Amino acid sequence: MRVLIVHAHPEPASFSGALTSVAVEALEASGHEAVVSDLYAEGFDAVAGRGDFTGAANSAKFHYQAEQAHAAETDSFVAEIAREQERVMAADLLVLQFPLWWGAPPAVLKSWFERVMAYGFAYVDGCRFDTGFFKGRRALISVTTGGTPKRFSDEDVYGPIERVLYPLKRLALEYMGYEVEAPFVSYAVPRISDEERADCLARWRTRVVAAAEAAPSVEIRDPRAALARMGAQAWTRA
Amino acid sequence: MRVLIVHAHPEPASFSGALTSVAVEALEASGHEAVVSDLYAEGFDAVAGRGDFTGAANSAKFHYQAEQAHAAETDSFVAEIAREQERVMAADLLVLQFPLWWGAPPAVLKSWFERVMAYGFAYVDGCRFDTGFFKGRRALISVTTGGTPKRFSDEDVYGPIERVLYPLKRLALEYMGYEVEAPFVSYAVPRISDEERADCLARWRTRVVAAAEAAPSVEIRDPRAALARMGAQAWTRA
To answer: Considering CB atoms only, which of B102, B107, B168 is closest to A172?
Structure first.
């Protein structure tokens, strides 16, 4: 299967870096294809705006989603967005690898959703959840935390990790039609022993390969076809 | 009271822009002080990293939180971060004004938390929630959505807005000690009539002034004192 790992950590020597390295190694050893979007290393632009488009449909009255719809119809996203969209389209399984900062993914990964998963490319009005563009594809969140499992329990200060990841799972991934697996959580990584780290990496190897095996093969299709059918029209009505 | 509005929307003509304008006007008319951090207009840098510091304690082995602790002790944050920290320290009430994108604040606002609310400035190990640095201060989330109230109900696709805002409220604001009011939600702003918009703005005027009246006056203090007492030590142990 084809796997896209979107990796968002500033330091290659981090535990997040180790998780992505073993994932690539394990996936390739099992005959899968792994592509990594290393957002920090690639200097991915983190602010959605006019700079996302090679042209603007309406510079005077700029509306971000309208510009995205126009760019999807006319192939006028800037190169780094177009490249990420090609990767997304090709991937049977989408893996998000990031540290939990302030209860959420790093800003640069949030920005990846805002800029890459554009209106007209990843969704249009009326094509969401069960009718989402990426229906049939799988997604897997792999997150590292500073807090211990106890802190993320129902009675403790942070609450269960599923509650923390709810907006990302429900309002981003499932919104686009992805089937989202249970998250892989590496708890308290600054506080665990070398043995615990090795064990965690071994579990991740097994898990990510299992996720790739389980992912249905999707036909590489261009979701923009749906925009041509109904999206532009839907936008005009909005 | 002193109010800091952190505003994250790319378009001044947006409904978010209107909400911030009426808030400033209403607060000042009621004798409060309002400062706006307009992150898009100010070109706020959205990627946390080495560029946040005027010097680095340990360039060879860069660790972001360790660098933040060092910068807090040595006053070596870059100017835009230092300016935001001054504003945060001075504010009795913190207002966050943003559109809900992919179930969360825009990346630039996420980045504001990562870069401004730095280790050593906004928290250290052992000073969180009930012992958080900003204990005694109030925070108010004002969010605009594309979805209708029905969509954000318990039975519908997004779930209640409180569930969506949980990570921001609990793992960011309450983590630092803020007392967080119930959110002010402007639902379905692209779909409502001019009358509904006017009504929403009127309710926001009343609400934000009430929040400012209710906020206890905090002594302008430097949370870095706590770092000097225990934070650096705590960091060394980590």
So the answer is: B102
Instruction: Single out the residue of B77, B102, B87 nearest to residue B38, CA to CA.
Output: B87
State whether residue B238 is helix, strand or coil: coil
Q: Which tokens in the block code for residue B180?
A: 């967080």
Report the alpha-carbon distance of residue B175 to residue B137 in Å, rounded. Answer: 12
Q: Which of B111, B163, B178 to mutate to test the interface with A (most CBs of A within 10 A)?
A: B111
DSSP one-letter string for B148-213: -TTTTSTTSSS--HHHHHHHHIIIIIGGGTPEEPPPEEETTTTTS-HHHHHHHHHHHHHHHHHHHH
Closest CA to A133 of A14, A230, A3, A40: A230
- pLDDT tens string A31-59: 999 999 999 999 998 888 888 999 866 66
User: How far apart are the C-alpha atoms of A230 and A238, rounded to whole Å?
Assistant: 13
Across the interface, which of A103, A108, A114 has its CB nearest the CB of B168? A103
Across the interface, whether the CB atoms of A111 and B113 are under 8 A apart is answered: no
Residue A183 DSSP code: P
pLDDT averaged over consecutive 10-residue blocks of chain B (238 residues)?
96 96 98 98 89 78 87 93 96 98 98 96 91 94 97 96 98 97 97 97 98 86 60 42
Residue closest to A11 by CA, chosen among B127, B81, B61, B104: B61
* Whole-angstrom Cα Rg for chain A: 18
Maximum Cα–Cα distance across chain A:
59
Shortest CA distance from A164: residue in chain B: B167
Q: Which residues contact A117 (CB under 8 A, 6 or more apart)?
A: A88, A123, A172, A176, B102
What are A33's two structure tokens? Answer: 């294809």
Query: Rounded to whole angstroms, what are the CA distances from A38 to A34, A44, A226, B186?
Result: 12, 8, 29, 36
In the numeric block, the tokens 């579990």 are attached to A203
What pTM, to 2 d.p., does this model score?
0.94
Alpha-carbon distance B41 to nearest alpha carbon in chain A (angstroms): 12
CA–CA separation, B100 and B44 (whole Å): 19
3-state secondary structure of B23: helix
CA trace torsion B208, B209, B214, B220 (10° rounding): 90
d(CA B163, CA A200): 30
Residue among B50, B102, B169 with most chain A CBs within 10 A, to mutate:
B102
Closest approach of chain B CAs to the CA of A28, in angstroms? 30
